[in-house]
Amino acid sequence: MNKTGKPRAGAGAAKVPAATATPARNRQPAETKLAELKRRLLEISDLAAARSVLRWDQATYMPRGGAHARARQGATLSRLAHEKSVDTALGTLLDQLAPYAAGLPYDSDEASLIRIARRDFEKAIKLPSAYVARASALGSASYDAWTRARPANDFAAMLPFLEKAVDLSREYAGFFAPYQHVADPLIDAAEEGMTTASVRSLFAELRSKLIPIVRAICDQPVPGDGCLRGSFSEPAQLGFSLSVVKQFGYDTDRGRLDKTLHPFCTKFSSGDVRITTRVDEKHFGDALFSTMHECGHALYEQGVAAALEGTPLGMGTSAGVHESQSRLWENLVGRGRAFWEHFCPVLRDTFPDQFRQTGFESFYRAINKVQRSLIRTDADEVTYNLHIMMRFDLELELLEGHLHVKDLPEAWRARMQADLGVAPGDDRDGCLQDVHWYGGTGTVGGGFQSYTIGNILSAQFYAAAVKAHPDIPLEIAKGEFGTLRGWLREQLYQHGRKFQPSEVVMRATGGPMSTTPYLVYLREKYGELYRLDLAPLPEHLQNYVPCAAA
Q: Strand 272-277 relative to strand 265-269: parallel, antiparallel, unpaired?
């Protein structure tokens, strides 16, 4: 059963034809109201898309002088979209359509639209439009300040912005009181159905099993990665990266690749899904893996069924499920042995002077090197989640008032030293490194946990795909990705936001979210790379279908 009390499709749900459930004399009025609902929702979607265009431009091509006006423009669009989202006429329409939806199959587009639109409306009416505008304006102004403060190592410049963001986050939570923890409403906004307590429990379970692997690897000498360092021209890196994601299936007739400070993917419509990346001409990999990561997001958005365009269903279901796709394509595919069996010769042709003398195993070990590191976005698969758990805990302390913003740099250094055995020498590589607290929604909290949820789900989805299509790893070794992409589109992408995250996982994999596939993947891949002598898996996991084949 799902949270609404209705059976899930595929779990004994009765498929009641709309014509049977709704008498012919009542069908037309319901269809007319549904058309009006879609018209109103499309206006809201268009305003949100226009806001996203402004954010994309600010992060790519906007001249610095446009920042002040951009904050005002974004706030105006956010306010207008919110006012339409809480219009009483919209609420009346949803009330009138409730009986119609009740007579439709749970997984139909129409029932799903009415159900999700109702849920969004009930959340939106708790937020004043003035608050939405203030948060949007702060996010825009804070991002502009961060683009200068981080290179200058100037945390003092960001202090007032971050203090306001923490205040806005508490204010946001207050609109959804009562709650068990102040972060709960923020977490639920990203991962519907999850709470501070459930995330803490998930992290505790994962951390206990990760730490032995991290220690076993980090106690060894750090392998060399000299082959990744040298001179790699920007045009060549961008060209190689774009060719890879086009082979994944990224449709450049409906998207484009640009540069930015902190890579992201954004969607303006089903025909315009853009990705960004960054380039380091002295180190190979940053542009490629960032591009593959954002391509994973873009494949999700480009794969949503066209019928859901312009509605609340026309996007990914949650931040964690979305992140599962970026991590799946970046790591399980893009850092996999099978992938490079195909692409290593292409890489040598692209950079002959740099990689002509590099053996396959040396290169493969270099791109999968595990070490204690300062920067989250550069972190390897094994240590990455420790970065996330640290940020999650610091967010909670900020929201609880146990940590003052002015003390964040020192708290960051102490936690990095305790968790990863390294500490930043400055704030540029410390608490200023992530844009998340300094832009976007203008709030703090509720976001970072989605990265680890995404890691966990990436392995679970991939394992299910390989179980359904065992030849996927062999196809990847030939540079063929259609079967994997097709399975993901069928199981995840096409449904957009029709189902809750827990429903998506259950429908696609046959079970709830589990850390098991992810831990099996890490143990197999890095156990082989580092010749680890790990304690045996529990007996019930020893026959688990491996997902590290790629």
A: antiparallel
Residues annotated as catalytic (active site), given as ranges: 294
Counting Cβ atoms within 10 Å, is residue 42 exposed (0-12), middle (13-18) or buried (19+)?
Answer: middle
Contacts of 381 (CB under 8 A, 6+ apart): 331, 335, 368, 370, 455, 522, 525, 526
- Indicate the pTM of the whole model: 0.90
- Closest C-alpha to 86, from 126, 136, 130, 134: 126
Rounded Cα distance between 187 and 204, Å, is 17
What is the distance between the alpha carbons of residues 157 and 153, in angstroms, rounded to a whole number? 9
With contact defined as beta carbons under 8 Å apart, do 366 and 223 qualify? yes
Residues 6+ apart with CB under 8 A from 490: none
Whether 312 and 116 have beta carbons less than 8 Å apart is answered as: yes
Q: Which whole-number Å values give the CA distances from 251 to 244, 248, 269, in the listed order?
A: 12, 9, 13
The mean pLDDT values, 10 residues at a time, for the chain of 550 residues are 38 39 57 96 97 96 94 95 97 96 97 97 96 93 95 98 96 96 96 95 95 92 91 97 98 98 95 97 96 98 97 97 98 98 96 94 96 93 97 97 98 96 96 91 87 98 98 98 98 97 97 96 95 73 47
